[in-house]
Structure formats: structure tokens, C-alpha cells
Amino acid sequence: MILTKPFQLLFVDDNADFRAKHLQPLTDEGFVVTEAGSEQEALAILGSQKCDLVVTDLIMENADSGFTLSYHIKKKFPDLPVILVSTANSKFGVDFSTSSESERRWMKCDAMLPKPIRFEQLLAEAHRLLGVETPHHDQHH
Predict the structure, then answer these.
(1) Which residues are registered as beta bridge partners of 12?
(2) What mean pLDDT comes out for the span 79-96?
(3) Which of 3, 46, 132, 137 could form a disulfide with 30 if both were Cys (CB 3.0 to 4.6 A apart)?
(4) Which residues are 33's β-sheet partners?
(5) 33-43 residue pLDDT tens
(6) pLDDT for 3-14, tens place per residue?
(7) What are the distances in angstroms from CA 7 to CA 2, 10, 53, 60, 70?
(8) Please, which residues have CB within 8 angstroms of residue 98's CB and are 6 or more apart in sequence?
(9) Top-tier CATH class for 8-130
(10) Cα(59)–Cα(63) distance, integer angstroms
(11) What pLDDT score does 74 carry?
């Protein structure tokens, strides 16, 4: 589904290959994507341009860079949705959940996806957080 308006998406990850892998599919879906390779770069971008959604890695310069970035975003832009992506599940066996309001408040993010992320899953979360209808495909059994 192509978006009816061009949502500004900030994609933050210190892995340029990971960013590149998702850039074209997101652009094809109608997002205007700005890339950042670090927490500091993302904060600078957010200080100079409007964004509708932030997708950020958890572990970048520091093990908690994504949490720190989310904290700063929510402090300055409380309504800006943040999706955290992380290998913490697969690498460390740590399971972060955003299923309850208190967990979302503590982590300062609106959704958390494990890496490697499935593009469909990222897109579904982005649509949900932006209030965009996701097309329903008829399933024939």
C-alpha cells in the first residue's frame, strides 16, 4: 500500500548495510526516509527537521543508545512514535516487551521489534503507529 501522504521517517542504525537494506522498500511504500548512523546524528536531524516516525536500533555507540535516544525524543516530542529494533533477544536472551503501558513508559518507545526484522512487521507497526489503514488481503482457504 502506498501512503496517501509522504510520512517523514528517521531510520537510525550504526550499520549502514542494515539501513540500506530497508531504505528502498520504505521509500517504495511512500515514506520519505532520512538516515542517521548514531544517536547524536539522529538528535541533530530531529532538531532541524520534522519527523513523523523514528525507527532506531537499540545498541549503537553504547549498549543503551536506542533507549537514550528514545528518552530524548519523548522528552522533546512526546507524540513522536518510536520503534526500537534490537538483537538483544537473539544475542543476549533479553526479552523487552512493549505490551503494557508501564513498559512503554519505562522504555520510552511505542514498539519493539527483534532483529532481524521482517519488513512486513516493520511496515505493520509503522502503519499502526501512524494511524494508517493497512490493506487487508482476502485469504482463501
Answers:
(1) 36, 56
(2) 68
(3) 3
(4) 9
(5) 999 999 999 99
(6) 778 899 999 999
(7) 11, 10, 8, 25, 19
(8) 104, 107, 109, 110, 111, 112
(9) alpha beta
(10) 5
(11) 92
Q: What is the pLDDT of residue 1?
A: 56
Going by C-beta distance under 8 Å and a sequence separation of 6 or more, which residues neighbour residue 125? 83, 111, 113
Residue 59: how many other CB atoms lie within 10 Å = 19
pTM above 0.70, yes or no: yes
Res. 49 pLDDT band, cuts 50 70 90: very high
Copy the grid coordinates of residue 93: 536472551
Q: 115 with 90: CB under 8 angstroms?
A: yes
Measured between its terminal Cα atoms, the distance across the chain in Å is 23
Rounded to 5°, angle at Cα 38 from 108 and 42:
60
